[in-house]
Amino acid sequence: MNVVVVTGSAGLVGSEAVDLFSRHFDLVIGMDNGMRQRLFGADAAVTGNLAEVERLANYRHHVVDIRDHAAVAAVLSEYGSDVKLVVHTAGQPSHEWATDYTLTDFAINAQGTLNVLEAVRQYCSDAVVVITSTNKVYGSAPNDLPLVETGTRWEVDPGHPYREHGIDESMNVDQTDHTFFGVSKLAADIAAQEYGRRLGMKVGIFRCSCLTGPRHAGVALHGFLSHLTRSAVRGTPYTIIGHHGKQVRDNLDARDLAEMFLHFYRNPRPGEVYHAGGGRERSCSVLEAISRIEQMTGRELAVKYEPQHRFADAKWWITDTRKFRQHYPEWEPKYSLDETLASMQQRWTLAENEDAALAERTSTNV
Q1: Residue 88: what pLDDT?
Q2: Residue 267: is it exposed, middle or buried by C-beta count within 10 angstroms (0-12/13-18/19+)?
Q3: What is the dihedral of CA 234, 240, 241, 242, to 10 degrees?
Q4: Dist. CA 96–CA 183, nearest whole Å
Q5: CA quadruple 332, 223, 226, 172: dihedral positive or negative?
Q6: How far is CA 209 from CA 85, 93, 121, 257, 286, in A?
Q7: What is the pTM of this model?
Q8: Which alpha helices (DSSP H) does the chain contain, by range?
Q9: How far apart are CA 342 and CA 139, in angstroms?
């Protein structure tokens, strides 16, 4: 039997990985304890995602906190050498939240990753392991680039090597400001490399830019495109935080990221680090994203502005994925930025209509 284990299986990336790998494996084992809602409130709940993956005939769910090594190990020991792939997507994703809850953040992101890697080492050491890291391991280093301010966005200087393709894996992670989130993710990132490089385990590390998609339960503290789209659908104000809304991110649909994982699984390269993002063609500033969504919804979005930017917040990030493309030339992202935005609008509109219908039924019954 071929088994894949997905941590954070109800989250954005985890649920898309479950959906994809359910078509390639005999059995999909999910681990998720629903902590996202406890961290960020009701809007961050992923119960809908969980309900969707649990409808898959070959999915089995385990309520596991990745900080609990014994619980993680118990799941992997149950399936042992049948486990061919472990996709580790569980984590705490907010830089701001981590500042106030540093110990919890580090336990989830760093210790949790070690718990997964050690359990794989003990019970299914030949399995391929995918680790979802982040470009936040570079901290504020992108702000040291020669940047130019335009009418709607920050850009790197036209003569700079990063201008055409974006930032590659050679960017320095040291001697720069890091959020505590960046610190915990960097610790996990480097540890995962060691399991691959020193122990020869089939570990791949994916440093992701902004990830999004229709299953993203974005909130103010994390997931700006999802939160922005939901604000537009609800007609609630959206707050731009710093940099005059000109900070640039490239965006990758989580469905395309899951495909990257599949390519790595088929031909793993132990200890490799890859940038994962949407590239220049899927990049936008906050201002540009607002404009796209206003055109999509046909109405103006209420916007507030908070001038103080977040600590170590990069003004410009576009991901260079050429290393991954060189190793896996068959991978190509399928979803354009507009297609991803449209899928999120559709999902949030449906959710709002369902909530309204439920509220109406409830009031009628009363």
Answers
A1: 98
A2: exposed
A3: 180
A4: 13
A5: negative
A6: 23, 12, 28, 11, 15
A7: 0.96
A8: 12-21, 35-40, 47-54, 69-79, 95-100, 102-106, 112-123, 162-165, 180-197, 224-234, 254-266, 286-297, 322-327, 337-365
A9: 31
Query: Which tokens hold the place of 83?
Result: 């486990």
Instruction: Tell me if residue 251 falls in helix, strand or coil.
Output: strand
- 3-state SS, residue 343: helix
| β-strand partners of 86 | 5, 129
Q: What is the DSSP string of 124-175?
A: -TTSEEEEEEEGGGGTTGGGGS-EEE-SS-EEE-TTSTHHHH-B-TTS--SS
| Residue owning tokens 């796209």 | 292
State how far Cα 355 lies from the chain centre: 26
Strand partners, 251: 210
- In whole angstroms, give the CA distance from residue 329 to residue 16: 22
CA atoms within 13 Å, Cβ hemisphere of 343:
14
Note the pLDDT tens digit of each residue in 227-280. 999 999 999 999 999 999 999 999 999 999 999 999 999 999 999 999 999 999
Q: Model confidence over 30-75: pLDDT tens digits?
A: 999 999 988 889 988 999 999 999 999 999 999 999 999 999 999 9
